[in-house]
Each structure stands twice: as structure tokens, then as C-alpha cells.
């Protein structure tokens, strides 16, 4: 039964749906309650994961290669944006230059 759900792609759509529910809950906690992580800290990770699930689904359903490549390219783009958002100079890092204490 589980193998059939995996083979027809519904299991992967369920995972994508759970990712969307998680994102909605995290957004609610951040904006309505003021608790949790800022969306910038997790949105790239969730988006790239969801797009990877869609790429696997497209491959399992033997959809055209261009569609698989589309999902993979989207996941790469989300992953790179997430990495660039996290990249930065931390206070006290040697790349800041000498301090004038």
C-alpha cells in the first residue's frame, strides 16, 4: 500500500503539503505571536526541500526530463538564495579588519 502511494506520487504530494503546513504554522507563530525563527532563517530550506520532492515525483511519474530539470533548478535557486542570506560577516570576524580599541 505504501509502495503504491510512493509510485503514484501521492506520498510525495503529502510531504509537500506537510511542508506547506509547517511553513504556515511558523509564519503564524512569527507574525501573530512574535515567537520562533524569522522566516529568513528557514524559508529557503523549506522551499528547496519541497522543490526536491516535486523533482522526485516528476521522475517517478516518468514525466519529461525538462520538468524534472525545472524542479531541480528551482531547488538549486532556493538553496543558493538561502546560502547567500545566511552568508555574512560576524562581529569580531577577522575579515572586518583591525579594531581601533
Assign a percent range to the helix content.
55-70%
Unreliable runs: none
Distance between the termini: 67 Å
Q: Give the ordered list of helices and strands.
A: HHHH
Number of strands: 0
Question: Whole-number average pLDDT?
Answer: 89
> How many helical stretches?
4
Give structural notes.
The longest helix has 24 residues, at 10-33. The chain is built from four helices and no strands. It has 101 residues and is mainly alpha-helical. It starts with a helix and ends in a 15-residue tail after the last helix. It is flat and about 65 Å long. The protein has one domain (14-87).
Map the helices and strands.
Layout lengths: L1 H6 L2 H24 L9 H18 L4 H22 L15
Could you name the key traits of this structure?
101 residues, mainly alpha, 4 helices, 69% helix, flat
TL;DR?
The protein is mainly alpha-helical and 101 residues long. The chain has helices at residues 2-7, 10-33, 43-60, 65-86.
Amino acid at each position: 500500500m505504501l509502495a503504491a502511494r510512493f509510485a503514484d506520487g501521492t506520498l510525495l504530494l503529502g510531504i509537500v503539503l506537510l511542508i506547506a503546513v509547517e511553513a504556515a504554522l511558523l509564519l503564524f507563530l512569527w507574525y501573530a505571536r512574535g515567537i520562533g525563527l524569522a522566516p529568513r532563517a528557514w524559508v529557503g530550506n523549506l522551499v528547496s526541500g519541497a522543490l526536491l520532492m516535486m523533482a522526485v515525483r516528476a521522475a517517478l511519474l516518468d514525466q519529461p526530463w525538462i520538468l524534472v530539470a525545472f524542479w531541480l533548478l528551482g531547488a538549486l535557486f532556493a538553496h543558493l538564495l538561502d546560502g547567500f542570506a545566511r552568508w555574512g560577516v560576524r562581529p569580531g570576524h577577522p575579515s572586518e579588519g583591525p579594531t581601533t580599541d
